[in-house]
Design brief:
The chain is of the alpha/beta class. The chain has one domain. The chain has 4 helices and 7 strands. It is globular, with a radius of gyration of 24 Å. About 5% of the residues have low confidence.
């Protein structure tokens, strides 16, 4: 009679089983990562749709789109504040005081984005302002949050004039090297004094005076979007600055709250021009891992102040149009098509792939 016992695994059999399990995990992991990436992109798309529709609801209430920046242009409010009631954040909106200097006559009495009570908003990590594909950051090691979404300031620079400054005879997509400003759904630094001597020799941000006297960020009417709301970009993405001092994505501040379509999305050669802010040490030459994020602080007549569209989605970026629709744009989009999408009154024939 045979003895009754349970035969165990041999070492070779155990190694074979472990190898099979490892192989299955290796095959499954990319699929899981793709599902996660798709879910993050869908959440990002939904955020943009809410922002685009929030702008349209604001227009229905006030007869204009939201201001890209408040009339001071810098530090007393950007579009991230007036849109709050239209993205289900009325209680936060009620906290904010002194938007654009309103209600104040003395400069020193006006709370900025980081001062109480306004930091009760800018310290918040708002889901609707955060793309889940990106890594949440805070500004320069503090408590003020960085964000993922920016509004369309047109096809040239945040100064919203032809580039290079003073050029003529070109087109909105760049004929003969001159890119003509073709309008934008959101105004930025449109003070003529800002254009003196190349654009950065004058106090463009009114940081030395009373912001209540500024004339920047004048809201646009829907009638001014002559290219059509379905053909004009409203909102897109940026990557939150991943190193200390990198101000990109700090949308509480005027210079980081908008984007232009002068250069194509996720461009790893053309820099963001973050004049008045900061690039962070590693950002100036780009990061070792993709996507690279070149940056400079120097604004010139031929490469003026601008922030480009960037994301961590594979192959492209999400964009929200002025009619509330959302699309995915490939990094390989033709620069002429991309510039045309950034204009609100350029008169181009637009067909985003």
């Amino acid at each position: 009679m045979r003895p009754f016992f349970r035969k165990g695994f041999t070492l070779i059999e155990l190694l074979v089983v472990i190898a099979i399990i490892a192989l299955l995990i290796g095959m499954l992991l990319p699929a899981v990562q793709k599902v996660r990436a798709a879910a993050a992109r869908m959440k990002c798309t939904n955020n943009m749709k809410q922002i685009s529709l929030g702008n349209m609801n604001y227009e229905s209430a006030y007869g204009t789109f939201i201001p890209g920046v408040s009339r001071n242009g810098c530090c007393w409010g950007t579009w991230t504040i007036p849109i709050l009631p239209y993205v289900e954040q009325q209680s936060l909106f009620n906290i904010y005081v002194g938007f654009g200097g309103q209600g104040y006559t003395v400069m020193g009495n006006i709370p900025r984005y980081g001062a109480a009570p306004n930091n009760g908003i800018s310290d918040q990590r708002l889901s609707i302002y955060t793309c889940p594909s990106d890594t949440p950051q805070v500004w320069n090691g503090g408590t003020l949050t960085m964000n993922s979404y920016v509004l369309n300031a047109g096809n040239t620079s945040l100064y919203q004039v032809n580039m290079p400054f003073g050029c003529t005879g070109g087109s909105t997509v760049g004929a003969i090297g001159c890119v003509s400003f073709g309008g934008a759904p959101f105004n930025w630094y449109d003070d003529p004094a800002a254009l003196a001597a190349g654009g950065d020799s004058s106090p463009v941000d009114y940081t030395g005076g009373n912001p209540a006297t500024g004339i920047m960020g004048k809201p646009q009417t829907i009638a001014s979007i002559t290219d059509g709301t379905s053909n004009t970009l409203c909102v897109s993405e940026v990557i939150q600055g991943p190193s200390a001092g990198d101000i990109r994505g700090f949308t509480w501040w005027g210079g980081a709250a908008g984007f232009t379509t002068y250069q194509t999305p996720n461009n790893d050669i053309a820099p963001d021009v973050m004049t008045g802010g900061g690039c962070g040490g590693a950002s100036i030459t780009g990061y070792a891992t993709k996507p690279k994020m070149p940056c400079t602080l120097t604004s010139t007549a031929s490469l003026a102040r601008m922030q480009l569209v960037r994301s961590r989605h594979d192959g492209g970026v999400n964009v929200g149009m002025c009619d509330g629709s959302v699309r995915f744009v490939a990094d390989s989009i033709d620069v002429a098509t991309w510039r045309a999408a950034g204009t609100s009154a350029g008169g181009e024939s637009l067909a985003i792939p």
